[in-house]
Amino acid sequence: MSDSQSKISSKKEVEDLVKARYPLIYVVSHEAQRVEESLKRLCVEREMRMEVWSITEGFKTVANGSGSRDVKDPIKALDHVNRGEGRALYILRDFHPFTKDPSVVRKLRDLSFSLRQTKKTAIILSPVQKIPPELEKGISSIVYWELPNRSEIEQIARNLVPQAPAPVQKEASEKPDFLEHVVESALGLTELEAQDVFAKSMVRTHTFDIKTILDEKKQIIRKNGLLEYYERTESIGDIGWLVTLKDWVAKRRNAFGQKARDFGLPLPKGMLLIGVPGTGKSLTAKAVGSLWEMPLLRLDVGKIFAGLVGSSEENIRKVTQTAEAIAPAILWIDEIEKGFSGTGSSGQTDGGTTSRVFGSFITWMQEKEAPVFVIATANDVSQLPPELLRKGRFDEIFFCDLPTREEREQIFNVHIAKKGRDPEQFNLSRLADATQEFSGAEIEQAIVQALYDAFDAGAELSTDGIVESLHEVVPLAVTMREKIDYMREWARTRARPASGKASERGKGSWMERHGAADGGGERKLEL
Predict the structure, then answer these.
(1) Number of helices followed by number of strands (H, E) in the chain
(2) Do the Cβ atoms of 52 and 34 come closer than 8 Å?
């Protein structure tokens, strides 16, 4: 089988398949009307008869002919296709549910052979890819119909301009780039969704309001249950202590445009962030979205395999298609090791589904041409599939270690300021000394706890209050000591330090300050 995940358009892909006399094609799309209109134009150009079948209406001739046939039974519909004469294209809408019937499967297999001797092609048009194993060789090709591109979205918007107030019409006619941001905000939507969103914006605001369009788009993307559209709230200053990582990201800010291509720069692919939980990996993904001013899509890999959502292979295709349609965009995969762990034993545990989905995803990562930057985070390197770490998957692998003393001062500065306080009123040096081996998330939580304590006591947040709250926190550096040591050793030769500085270990550690000592390999804590 083949698919159309290349630069060639879906219409051109189908045209080539019809010319090559492929008998049975499977087209995947939620936009039946848009696909049929495109295929209708193709049939007019090639002087082919086009008939469309549905379970509710039977056959209707829509190109190079007229008439209808009240044939609603799936078996009889396939007989009609088989008996048809001349050059013809038959569209079978939503035919996939009937492939559960062995008689229908057998009929389709027979049809795939008999049509080869004719000038007819049958297309199964469905919003989902559901092909039983018996038909895998009978279906000649699978075409994933792409979502509307920029020019198509722009045309949808321009069709509404005559209904807009005079100032909007004037701006649209005088400024060629007037709709540029409007189009960008609607990428990733179907044709009907874009029409509805633009119409809603026009009714509510009397113009093309970006916020209204984006709000509606977020809801639409969330409906499929696979991706979450994240707001850009964090700034690159929020990860100021990860100096090396921040500089690396900043240098690639403008690497997605045509000027970068002309200069010879390759399109940035992505980065893998590995490290101790709470060290800023997820925060980095959000900050990069703000810095680059790109849509940030978060993928929960677990939902890919959720039976209620649908086919796992179909789900990963929807994710990559949506990301590419919205591109330039960032695809953020949090704790990727949890989603793809066990790929080696997938054949014994889930029939190979995890391995197939993972294989499809890393192949897409390797070969994608759309400007989709993948940010993957991982807390447990021992669970990462080796294939994910191969050169070429990611541009860089960063290790986010526990912050140094200087970095902890910066973290306190950021979080105290976020709480509406002046960091200069706090003894940041003392706070940094008191939080050796604390992660950034643990420092933030200590400040939150100190805020609760201060509010309850009717006092103001203070250095002493924060230090007091630290006594209630046992850092992960203690509870996960062996795991963190293993991760550091692994990263020493395999990853680039995100901060460019070595973490602090040895004398004066949290273990020693709290009376814990190693005795015969056993730690004893006095909390």
Answers:
(1) 24, 16
(2) no
